[in-house]
Amino acid sequence: PGSHWVAIFIDKNGTADYFDSYGLPPTTVTPISRYFQGFRKQNWSSQNIQAPFSSVCGHYCIYFILHRWKNIPFDHILKTFSPDCEENDEAITDWINETFDLDTETYDVEFLINQICQSR
To answer: What are the residue ranges spanned by the domains of the chain?
Structure first.
């Protein structure tokens, strides 16, 4: 906990797809930005699909990488999500739990309490 996951997928043609479930551009993560800029063709989306306090950014990255690996286009992957970020978070949690036989939660309550409720 405490880190935000993003993903880069490079297809066989050398196109780099940058994915951030908050829809932030690759320029917000400096080392990744430098790496991403090295590709001739680049794709990224500004579509926010994740709710602000959920703990599922890694789930989204796994979903994205596995679906790109199956040659599902970037825009098709994004179209599977709705404008309702909380609905997306519940759906991605269900997908991860079913796909990998896990029992993860959408919100890491202990982490949120430690980050938000304690003085520094």
So the answer is: 7-116
